[in-house]
Amino acid sequence: MIYLDNAATTLLKPAAVGREMLRAMQTCASPGRGGHRAAMRASELVFRCRATAAELFHVPEPENVVFTMNATHALNIAIASLVKPGMRVLISGWEHNAVTRPLKKAGAELLVARAPLFDQAACLKAFRERIGEAEAVVCTMASNVFGFILPISDIAALCEKENVPLIVDASQAAGALDVDFESLRAAFLAMPGHKGLFGPQGTGLLLCREPGEALLAGGSGSDSLLQEMPAYLPDRHEAGTHNVPGIAGLLAGMEYVREKTPAAILREERALLREAVANLADTEAVELFSGPEAAQGGVLSFRIRGRDSDEAARELSERGICLRSGLHCAPLAHESAGTLDTGTLRASFSPFVTDEETRKFCAAVRELSRAPR
């Protein structure tokens, strides 16, 4: 199996991730729910993970790191905290449904900063032209479909200048790009644990500058007499029992990222992307969506002319190639790129993909592009 669906989930992970999850299952109880050793061990583990995230993403205090089920859960908390019915919210043309659906549910009026694919200057210009209309901004750091890296630092500076609150979706950035929460001055920043942080599914993080509004209510292990969620972080957003094995795996994944460094991970992913582009560029039936290196992470979307994307993905799967096809839960991004009618095939790389696997993937795509339809 050649696994190239890392933008969805990094299936191949450091060995320590599974090992630490098993250890937590066998030795940890519920944090904040007792003073015995198993409960205290869980509390210490949860705090270590929180502190590691704070260090990795430049969060002033570990308490401002909230554990969530995934990035979607985190984005729902952030949007419910900031966005009220009728608010005008400016978004990029590359947002995931995890942004657009909660905004629709909140009753927001969406303004879209539209710009061509891989054109960072045009993207910033589009935000600058519409920021005066906006009461809030929600923006991804990188497109899950095309790997397009948006100029988030410049967009954040624009938001700060205009005093417009910002929510950042770092789902495709955390672990590979420089995610600096303090520098961005965002109100909230959301990320999953199971992608570039190499943690397990069912984990995510919300970095908070303010307490926000509680999305869930329940036991928090603190202030049990209160019949409202605590007003302080992180307890305000962590109702119910923590996913302690998941947090243990997430900690191991983040320790791998910290040791290897996001910059090194990005270099490796871009090297694999360049190799794939070089191997497929002269294949007439393959349309590649690639741009300048500074504007693209380790994600390559493509189409095989005359072939349905889902059908092509199935045929590649039969050849042992695992990738994503269709609209990738991001119809707005496909609308922006002009691929809404067909969708794309998406190969997404990680440090656990080899050069040889990349060449085999390209050979399989070339073979499929020449096969009778």
Write the layout of secondary structure elements.
Elements: E1 2-3, H1 15-27, H2 37-56, E2 65-68, H3 71-82, E3 88-92, H4 97-105, E4 109-113, H5 120-130, E5 136-140, H6 152-162, E6 166-169, H7 181-184, E7 188-192, E8 204-208, H8 244-260, H9 262-280, E9 286-289, E10 299-304, H10 309-318, E11 321-322, E12 324-326, H11 331-337, E13 344-348, H12 355-370
Parallel strand pairs: 1-11, 3-4, 3-5, 5-6, 6-7
Antiparallel strand pairs: 2-8, 7-8, 9-10, 10-13, 12-13
Helix pairs in contact: 1-8, 2-8, 3-4, 9-12
Report on this structure:
The protein is of the alpha/beta class. Helix 6 links the parallel strand 5 (136-140) and strand 6. The relative contact order is 0.17. Helix 3 (71-82) runs parallel beside helix 4 and helix 9 runs parallel beside helix 12. The strands form three sheets. It has a seven-stranded mixed β-sheet, with helices on both faces. It starts with a strand and ends with a helix. The protein has a domain at 2-10 and 262-370: Aspartate Aminotransferase, domain 1. The radius of gyration is 21 Å and the shape is globular. The chain is built from twelve helices and 13 strands. The longest helix has 20 residues, at 37-56.
What would CATH call the class of the domain at 2-10 and 262-370? Alpha Beta
Tell me the overall shape: globular
Q: Would you identify the CATH H-level superfamily of the domain at 2-10 and 262-370? A: Aspartate Aminotransferase, domain 1
Structural class: alpha/beta
The profile of the biggest β sheet is: 7 strands, mixed
Describe the strand arrangement of the main beta sheet, using strand numbers.
2-8-7-6-5-3-4
Helix content: 25-40%
Number of strands: 13
